[in-house]
User: Fold N-acetylmuramoyl-L-alanine amidase from Streptomyces xanthii.
Amino acid sequence: MGERGSGKAKGRDGDRVVSRRALIVGGAATAVGVGLLARGDLARMWWQVPGIDKPRKPGEVDFKGAEWVAAAAANWRRADRPADYTIDRVVIHVTQGSYQGTLRVFKDPWHGAAAHYVVRKDGHIAQMIRELDVAFHAGNRDYNQRSVGIEHEGFVDRPQDFTDAMYEASARLTAGICRRYGIPVDREHIVGHVEVPGTDHTDPGPHWDWKRYMRLVWAAHERAGAAKA
Ligand SMILES: [Zn+2]
Assistant:
């Protein structure tokens, strides 16, 4: 975050020098110069200006390999994250039902809730809400605004539901989210629904192997970093 902030300030100072030079030219040239500057500023900053809709293509996903399955619009709120809300949490859920059943209720406008992602037992991932937007998954307005929600197919009292493929796929997904928004890979920032203040939900439950999951997230996070470097 700090790095991004300082980079932004430097860019703006550079622009100011240009604009002063444009002013010296005077007259019509000044107006043109300022106009170009403003447009250039906008083009560079669009992703962090709240209230400006980022370009969205139908079917576009934030996690490569995820399948886009749109949730009903009533189950989320359009936003412009991370410009309007900082994303600093990932919330882990368990569906208490099948993958298909979960997709069905998230597509139902009367359900009133949905998560960004649903991970199937075989590791397949559906994205149902863009990370830009606020999904109603945590039952807590503050946490909804600051988090990305991931559902996992299964039941909290059935440890056999949490397969290797599911842990692996979910860990890659969470690692990518942490990379995109600079979220630290730790249990303060990657939490269970049960840990959201005020919740009466117990998921992901006692059989979710946090130690294993965090190790996988960390490894995937490191791999992604190495690939980028
Ligand atoms: Zn939950």
